[in-house]
Amino acid sequence: xxxxxxxxxxxxxxxxxxxxxxxxxxxxxxxxxxxxxxxxxxxxxxxxxxxxxxxxxxxxxxxxxxxxxxxxxxxxxxxxxxxxxxxxxxxxxxxxxxxxxxxxxxxxxxxxxxxxxxxxxxxxxxxxxxxxxxxxxxxxxxxxxxxxxxxxxxxxxxxxxxxxxxxxxxxxxxxxxxxxxxxxxxxxxxxxxxxxxxxxxxxxxxxxxxxxxxxxxxxxxxxxxxxxxxxxxxxxxxxxxxxxxxxxxxxxxxxxxxxxxxxxxxxxxxxxxxxxxxxxxxxxxxxxxxxxxxxxxxxxxxxxxxxxxxxxxxxxxxxxxxxxxxxxxxxxxxxxxxxxxxxxxxxxxxxxxxxxxxxxxxxxxxxxxxxxxxxxxxxxxxxxxxxxxxxxxxxxxxxxxxxxxxxxx
Length: 409
Fold this sequence. Notes:
Elements: E1 7-12, H1 23-37, E2 41-46, H2 58-77, E3 84-88, H3 91-99, E4 107-111, H4 147-157, E5 160-163, H5 166-174, E6 185-186, H6 212-226, E7 236-240, H7 249-262, E8 266-270, H8 275-287, E9 292-295, H9 302-309, E10 312-315, H10 324-331, E11 335-339, H11 343-347, E12 355-357, H12 362-375, H13 379-388, H14 394-406
Parallel strand pairs: 1-2, 1-3, 3-4, 4-5, 5-6, 7-8, 7-10, 8-9, 10-11, 11-12
Helix pairs in contact: 1-14, 2-3, 3-4, 6-9, 7-8, 7-12
């Protein structure tokens, strides 16, 4: 592939592992590594600490503008002219606007966060967890800015508009918010093969050798021990994500009591979020001792052992632009059970490499949980381990991003 884009400046509120927050940080880290491997000179301008607040707080805009200003100053001080400036998510519009005051390089804007099919922003990202209203829909009527105008500004500033999966790109294309966008390109994320390697991962107890079955069984015992659960041969389901409504945790809380009461299973949750929802999880743990293990914290190491030992990952998200946690779980042979929405449509094919349901309803989720339970230790499940392991690397994914940058408008 000819490399016309030799210099790429990435402006992001987070980059893994310096600022560990979510999928965006992992994407920036992976994409920058992949671009560098293809001979591109990459500079990442990011915050040194978590700058996320509710999007309607004025300090949020100020923080993003400071990132754009910092990026512009760095380019001037180092006489460095990027071929592309890559900004991310809603706050990236403010960064791009600030950068444009001193530099005319073309802007690639990537949307990572879910939206509604209307003018309202669907879910607050909720990285601050201070309020009981964490993750609830926002009424922009009382906001200090017009969100639709922010999106229009992003469209006008950017030469290329992208998102992190083809299915989510189609969702954006149908949204009134993006009516003025000429084209929205969806490119699936990848994962870091050096970090997520079942054969070499130092964060898990037993590495993959010749047998997937042995890999899962031995790591399951370690996982059960870590969470104080009986080390018995039962299917283990897990949820690893932010504990906020966007991730469908309320739907899961609704069906788990019946599912746990009627079946010999174990359930493990790792994540932090809304106090209201985490209290529900604690109640569930007390009600089902020996069946439920909980780690209510944002932990980026523990999921390695969880995915190595668990049989199924449950992610019934209301919206999910990509769902990097699904890709990571699949790499370790953990079968996904998901609401087929946005980027999860691109990753999971019901009955082929996982279980998926359409329509965000509790009875549909419960049906898929039972299908997964009945598949446990069947020939079908064992056959999936190899299929699940076929997840794109960042090196492969970034070729698509670079190809887009090299396209003529």
